[in-house]
Amino acid sequence: MQLEQELSNRFGFNSFRQGQKEIIMDVLAGNNVLATLPTGVGKSLCFQLPGLMMDGPVVVVTPLISLMEDQVKELKMKGFKNAVAVNSFNTIEERKQIIQTLATYKFIYLSPEILQNNFLVTELALIKPALFVIDEAHCISQWGHEFRPAYLKLNTIIKLLGSPITLALTATATPEVQQDIINQLTGVKFKCHIYPIDRPNLSFIVKKVKHTADKDKQIVELCNSFHVPTMIYFSSKRETERVCNHLAQHCPQLNVAFYHGDVPTTERILIQEQFMNNQLDTICCTSAFGMGINKQDVRLVIHYHLPVQIESFIQEVGRAGRDQLHSVSLTLVAPYDYSIPKHLIESEFPSNAGLTGLFNDLLELANQKAEGEINPAEIMNKWNLSEVQWRFVKNYLEKKQIINDNKVNSNTTNYSQILKYLTEKIAIRKRHKFKQLERFFSWINTDACRRIQLYQPFQSTKPLAQFSCCDYCGFALNQWAPVVSQYGVSTSSWQIKLTNILLPFDTESG
Amino acid sequence: MLRYLILFCFNRIGEQRTVASIYHILTGRRSAQTIQDVHLYQLTNFYGATKSLTRVQFTNIIKELIAQNYLNERDQSLVVLTAQAKNYLVKEQDKYPIHYLQGLKYVDIMDGFIARFHLAVQTYSNLVMKNKTFRPISDDETVQHWVKQNFHQNRQELRYWLRGIHNELLSFLNALDNEMYAMLFVDRLSGYQQAGYSIQQLARIYQIEEPEIELILVLLFHKLLTFAETNQLSTVRTFVEDLNLRKNNRFLTKSAQITLRLLESDYTIAQIAQKRKLKRATIEDHIIELTYAYYPFRIHTFIDQSSLENITLTIAKLPNHKLSLIKQALHNNYSYFQIRLALVHFHNL
Ligand SMILES: [Zn+2]
Predict the structure, then answer these.
(1) A508 pLDDT exceeds 70?
(2) Which own/partner contact pairs does A241-246 have at CB distance under 8 Å and 24+ positions apart?
(3) Does A494 contact B170 at a Cβ distance shorter than 8 Å?
(4) What UniProt keywords are attached to this protein's entry (chain A) (predicted)?
C-alpha cells in the first residue's frame, strides 16, 4: 500500500500497470532486474519512481536521442527539474557545464556513444549513481534487430561506476536475446521479470492475394468501410507513393499521405503532426515512420509488405490500439512477396569480394607504418559498402584491434585469420536471419492460432485475446465495429482558417 | 504559371543562350555566367524563383512545350519560341503575376524568411494556448534560435503579437487578386492543433503539379516581403531585419580567375593542377576564394549535402573555428578542404 501512496503523491496515478510494482519493489530491495514489458505500458515509471525514492542519482542509457529529449521534457513538465540529457547534440560548452554540475541532477540520460568518453565516466563514478538503467536493452544483443556496438561496453562501465543497482528494460526480447543480455553483462546478477508482450486488444488477419492489384483493391475497400486512423507499412519508398495516390483517387473522402526517408524534413514533420492531430486518416509509410510516435488511437495497422523479422512486425503492430480499444493487424501477402525480405537481408552484409579487397587495403596501410589513417567515406565508396555494412565491419575490426580510432594498428598481423573469422561470422549471422525470416514465413502460413504463434516464443504465459483473436480463431473484418473518426476535409474559408491559426484563443472562447 | 515563366524567359533571351542556361537562372545557380545572364537579359527578378525544380522536371516541361508547339527545337540545346507561344505570352500576361518575384534582390534572404515565418507562426500559436509539446516544423538550428529570441522579446504580449500578424496578413491576402493564392498560403500554415499541408498534399488538393505549387508559394512570399516594405507591416518586417540583401561581388585574384574559367569548362581539380603546374592545395585555395565571392559557387561539386551539414553543425557548436580543432571534433573524417568549404557555408548562413 505504501508504494501506491508514493505513486499517487509523486505522479498522481492511483494504481500500477502490469509488472510495474513487482519490478519497482525488486529494485528498491537492491536487486538487479532484467524486465520485458509490452510497449505502451510505461517502462519509464519503473525507474523514475524508485529513482526518486533512492539516495543518489539515476543514470539512464537510451539509444534514441529524440526519446531521451522527450523524457527529460516530460519529467520537467511533471515538476522534476533536475533531469538532463547528455548526447552528441549538446555543444561542448553545454556538455562541460553539465559535467561540472553533475551532482545537482537526479536523472541523467545518456546515449551509449557518449559513455565512451572516459572523462565523463570518471565524473559519473564520483557522484555514485544509485541506479543504472539500460533502456532498450535488446540493443546489446547481436542477435537482436537493433544491435548497437556501443552497448557492448556497458559491462565495463557498470563496474567503473561502482556496480550500482542495474535495471535492464526492453519491449521485445526472445529468450535467446534475454540470455545474450545476461551473458554480455557478466558482472551483474539479474532477477528476471518477463512479462507477456502480447497485446490482448489486437486481432490478427493474414490475407493471401495473387497480385499487387488485389492488395490495392483490398486496401481501397478497407479505407472506404473503416474510417479510422490507419498505418500501412511498405518496404519500398516508391510503393508508399504509388498506393497513396491510388487511395486518394479511389477514396475521395480519405485524408491520406505518404512518408519515407526521402521526403524532405519539413514535409515529414508536417505529415507526422497531421497524423497526431487527426488531420490524416491513413498514412502509407516505411519503417522510418513510427519511431517515437505515440498516437493512442491507431486502429488499423496494415502490412502491405513483409518486414524481415518477427520483432519488427511485433513492434509495428504494437503501434495499434495503445488506448486499449479493439484494433486490427492485417497482413497482405502475394506469392512473390517472400523474396523482398530475403534481398533486404542479403544487402545488410558486405560481399566476400569487397571484404577481401578492404582487408588488402588495410594490410597495405599497416605495412606503411606511418599514421595509417583510414577514410571511411573513401572505403565505403571504393568497396561499395553501405553505411550499415561499414558499421558492421568496423565493429569487428575494432574488436580485433585492426583499427583503433580510425587508425590502422600496425602491430596486428594475423589478417587472413581474422578475415576468415569474419567471413564465417557473416555466414552465421545470415543463416540466423534467414532462420528468423523462415519463422516469420511459417507464421504467415500457419494453420494454428496466430496470436499464440506470434507471441508464445517471447513469453511463458499463454497469450489471450480480449476481443476477437485471429482469422484462424474465426475473426473476420465484418465483425469489427470500431469507433469511426469524425474528421474530414475542412471546408472553411481561408479567413476562418487564418483566424483559427493566429487567434486560437478567440476560437476557443466562442 | 511555371510554363508561362519559362516561355517568358525564352522570349527575353531569344536564340542566344542554351536551354540549360534558363534552368540555371530559375534554380539560381551561383555562377558568374548565370549572374551575367540575368543582368544582360533583364531576368534578375526570376533568378532562383524555382530553386527545387529538378533537371528531370525541367526537361519534361520543355519536351511538353515542344510537343504542344510552343517551342521549336533547332538543335539539341537550342529551342525557339513559336508564334503561338508569343501570342500566349501576350494574351495571358494578366493571368500570372510573375512580376511579384524579386529573385536576385531576395535570393539570400528568402529561405530564411520563409522558415522563420512558418516556425514563428507555429510557435506563437501553440504557446499562446500553453501547448509546449508541439514539434517545431523547422529543424534548422539557426532558424529555431532566431525564433526563440524573437519569442523571448514578445512573450509578455503574445496575443498582441498574434493580432498584429493577423491584421498584417489579412491586409496582404485581401490585396491579392486571386483568391486561390490566399487559400494556398493559409493552407500551408501550421499552428495550434493544426499542421499545414505538405507540398504533395497541396498538389493533390488544388490539382496543380508540385513544382507549380512551390513556385506559387515562393512568389507569394516575395510579394509578402515587398508588400510589407511598402505598407509598413512592422511584424512581417522583423523577420528579415538582420538578414543581408545580396552581397556585392568581391574582388578575385588573377590566378583564381583562371581556375574559375577552367572550372566553368568542367575541368576537375586534379586536371587544373596538372594543366597549370600548380599544387592541388593551391587550386583548392582558389575554390575557397571563389566560393566566398560567389557563394555557394559549386559547393556541392566538392562536398555532398550530408557532409556539409554534418561539418556545419559541428562548427556551430565549437568555441573557436581553428581548422585542426574542427577536424578533430569530426574524428578526422573530413579533409581540411571540406572543412574550409563548410566554413564558407557557415559564414553565409
Ligand atoms: Zn487466434
Answers:
(1) no
(2) A241/A284, A243/A216, A243/A219, A243/A284, A243/A304, A244/A284, A245/B204, A246/A216, A246/A220
(3) no
(4) ATP-binding, DNA-binding, Helicase, Hydrolase, Nucleotide-binding
Residue B202: CB partners within 8 Å, gap ≥ 6? B184, B187, B188, B208, B213
Single-letter amino acid, residue A197: I
The predicted-structure confidence for B47-78, as pLDDT tens digits, reads as follows 989 988 999 999 999 899 999 999 888 776 67
% residues pLDDT > 70 (chain A): 94
Report the pLDDT value the prediction gives residue A40, as an integer from 0 to 100. 62
- Contact call for residues A281 and A255 (beta carbons, < 8 A): yes
Q: Could B173 and A498 be called an inter-chain contact, meaning their C-beta atoms sit closer than 8 Å? A: yes
What are the C-alpha distances in Å from B230 to residues B226, B233, B237, B244? 6, 8, 11, 18
Answer yes or no: do B125 and A273 touch at CB < 8 A: no
Q: Which helix (H) or strand (E) holds A285?
A: strand A282-285
Residue ranges in A36-174 assigned as alpha helix (H): 45-53, 65-77, 92-100, 118-126, 154-160
Same topology, domains A3-194 and A202-338+465-502? Answer is: yes
The secondary structure of A307-328, three-state, reads: CCCHHHHHHHHCCCCCCCCCEE
ipTM: 0.71
**Cross-chain residue pair B137–A273, CB shorter than 8 Å:** yes
Tell me the CB-side half-sphere exposure of residue A390, using CA atoms within 13 A. 15
Per DSSP bridges, beta strands A107-110 and A58-61 are parallel
Determine the pLDDT at residue A377: 78
pLDDT given at position A299: 95
Output DSSP code: residue B137. S
Question: Could you tell me if A282 and A247 are in contact, meaning their C-beta atoms sit under 8 angstroms apart?
Answer: yes
Q: Regarding the domain delimited by A202-338+465-502, which CATH topology (the fold level of the hierarchy) does it fall under?
A: Rossmann fold (3.40.50)
Q: Which of A260, A256, A320 minimizes the C-alpha distance to A287?
A: A260
> What DSSP string describes B172-218?
HHHH-S-HHHHHHHHHT--BTTBPPPPHHHHHHHHT--HHHHHHHHH
User: Domain ranges in chain A?
Assistant: 3-194, 202-338+465-502, 349-437
Centroid of ligand 1 to alpha carbon of A450 (angstroms)? 5
A contacts of B197 (beta carbons < 8 Å): 270
Q: What is the CATH number of domain B2-96?
A: 1.10.10.10
Output b/e per residue, B11-39; b: 16+ Cβ within 10 A.
ebbeeebebebbbbbbbbbbbbebbebbe
A341 alpha carbon – ligand 1 mean position (Å): 25
Helices marked H in B239-298: 254-264, 269-276, 280-293
Mean pLDDT of chain A: 86
pLDDT value at residue A303: 97
How far away, in angstroms, is A283 Cα from ligand 1 center? 27
How would DSSP label each residue in B186-198? Answer: HHT--BTTBPPPP
Determine the distance in angstroms separating the CA of B234 from the nearest CA of chain A, rounded to an integer.
16
Name the amino acid, one letter, at A8. Answer: S
The helix or strand, by DSSP H or E, that contains position A461, with its residue range, turns out to be none
How far is A239 from A187, CA to CA, in rounded Å?
48
- Can you tell me the distance from the alpha carbon of B169 to that of A483, in angstroms, rounded to the nearest whole number? 39
Neighbours of A199 (CB within 10 A): 26
Q: Do B139 and A91 touch (CB under 8 A)?
A: no
Closest CA to B161 of B125, B132, B208: B125
**Chain B residues lying within 8 Å of A90, measured CB to CB:** 317
- Single-letter amino acid, residue A208: K
Q: Does the beta-carbon distance from A504 to B125 stay under 8 Å?
A: yes
Report the distance separating Cα A317 and Cα A476, nearest Å.
17
Residue A463 CA to ligand 1 center (angstroms) comes to 9
